[in-house]
Amino acid sequence: MPRLTRLVLTIAAALLLAPAGASAQGLKSDNVTVVGKLADSVGAISARFSPDGDTMYVSSATGLGIYDITAPESPQLLSRLPLPHFENEDVDVGRDTVVITNDPSFTAVGMIYLIDVSDPAAPAVRSTLPTSLVGLADGDTGNGHIANCIAGCDYLYTTGTAEGLAIYDIRDLANPRFVKTFQIPGNGFTHDVHVDSQGIAWVTGEDGTFGFDTADPLNPQLVLRSDENVTNTGGGLPGDDGSGPLDFLHHNMLRLSDDTVAVTEEDYLKPGCDGQGSLQTWQITDERNSDGSQKLKMLDLWTTELNELATQVGRSPATINCSAHWFDESGGLLAQGWYDQGVRFLDVSQPGEIRQVGFYATGGTFWGAYFAPTDPEHEIVYALDVASGVDVLRIDRSGAMPAVRKAASSTDLRRARSAFAPHTRWGLVCQLPSAGVGSAVSGVTGQSR
Fold it and tell me: Which of 135, 319, 352, 359 has the fewest Cβ atoms surrounding its Cβ within 10 A?
């Protein structure tokens, strides 16, 4: 079965099996508070914020929801644009335009929607562009799983097949056009593109994580790459038994500092969550891969516990789907959606020693978690439960990461280092050892509701 087909079927099954009435109550550490639920947000898949941070765009299976988040604890729905599509895991925005894709692997007809959001209360489709391409291997119909802005949203890169990247010119928003495909080293299968603050476009996929200089958006130049010896066919690091750093694909990433990045490895193809996906930290080194790119080496890997699902008494046992998914990071604290394992808060201020410092888990399926950019305390998090909608959470950073919380600026926040000590308030959290590469660190114990 083609790799993309397996991906599609597994994601669709996870969505269908997720309990529609999932409760906002669940197992959580007592430094996490449930503040509320966003109106009209069932089916939420991904979110993105406006450049000024005051507006949040939520893409769901039924369309686009736009929220005023100037009061981060109580987002207000401004508008909704019905637009049935699937699945657009990483909605993007630029030049008063929200970019949404319909994955052609679901309908055989892919589509890019460019939505005018210059008036957030009245979004409107500005233009559309089919993305289906014929004649590709394994029956794939072309990229379109995700579309990401490049060069200030003058261009788009789309991902989702072994063709690598498809490049679109959208400088004329009313008349977008396909330019060409661009092959990625290895088998070429891509998943997401993220442009960091230094202008590097990071492409994640089946062969790892690649960093491209996009000074020429039509001809990106490879400058950084995760260790080429760590592949999804095994090799390079411990864990080749099915719990390694690249068993399926690198899903998404963010730069944590000048020399470290965090990466999700999505992996849900093994029954019973054996070999589930992980959150990883990688260091940018001075070493080189054989293609001349600067090499990234993995520092640490963190996965959730398995005992609840293994005994079929934990949350959402019908799906037994534990993989890590989309995350956000603020000042060394990372918030990550983890499918049927809730939202996990991880201290990555010391990238070689990832430590869980909070959690929130319900019967829902969490596709992502994002810090509210309008919250000066960096404690409000929007947790995207595809089953019941977006939960608004607060994580108390004062006990979890005191040094990080007191840092004065975003630069200081990213470089802050906090001394973590076990705290009696997290009675349901196991002692967290200094985990090395390839080890699974425990979090929640086997207790469940």
Answer: 135
Among all chains, which residue has been given the structure tokens 């692997």?
105
Strand partners for 114: 99, 127
Number of neighbours of residue 160 by Cβ within 10 angstroms? 31
Give SS3 for 390: strand
- Residues present in the chain in total: 449
Laid out side by side, the sheet with 165-169 consists of 146-150, 155-159, 165-169, 177-182
For residue 237, give both structure tokens.
Answer: 């690091």
- Is pTM, for the whole model, over 0.90? no
What gap in Å lies between CA 12 and CA 106, rounded to an integer? 10
What stretch of H or E contains 169?
Answer: strand 165-169
- Whether residue 362 contacts residue 26, with contact meaning beta carbons closer than 8 Å, is answered with yes
CB 266 within 8 A of CB 248: yes
435-446 per-residue burial string, b: 16 or more CB within 10 A, e: under 16: bebbebbbbbee
Alpha helices in 332-436 (DSSP H): 397-400, 402-405, 410-415
Q: How far is CA 236 from CA 143, 167, 216, 224, 225, in A?
A: 29, 32, 33, 18, 14
Taking the C-alpha atoms of residue 446 and residue 246, their distance in angstroms, rounded to an integer, is: 27
Give, for all 449 residues of the chain, the pLDDT tens digit. 344 444 444 444 444 334 333 334 468 888 999 999 999 999 999 999 999 999 999 999 899 999 999 999 999 999 999 997 888 899 999 999 999 999 888 767 789 999 999 999 999 999 999 887 655 555 455 889 999 999 999 999 999 999 999 999 999 999 999 999 999 999 899 999 999 999 999 999 999 999 999 999 999 999 999 999 987 765 444 444 455 688 889 999 999 999 999 999 998 766 566 667 899 999 999 999 999 999 999 999 988 865 443 444 444 444 567 789 999 999 999 999 998 889 999 999 999 999 999 989 888 889 999 999 999 999 999 999 998 999 999 999 987 765 443 332 232 222 222 222 222 222 222 222 222 222 222 222 222 22
- Going through 303-354 in order, the beta strands assigned E by DSSP cover 327-330, 333-337, 343-347
Chain position carrying tokens 């869980």: 356
The H-assigned helical ranges of 46-145 are 104-107
**CA 31, 33, 36 angle in degrees (round to 5)?**
165
The span from the CA of 341 to the CA of 324, in Å, is 8
Residue 389 forms beta bridges with which residues?
A: 385
Provide φ and ψ at 368, rounded to 5°. -175, 165
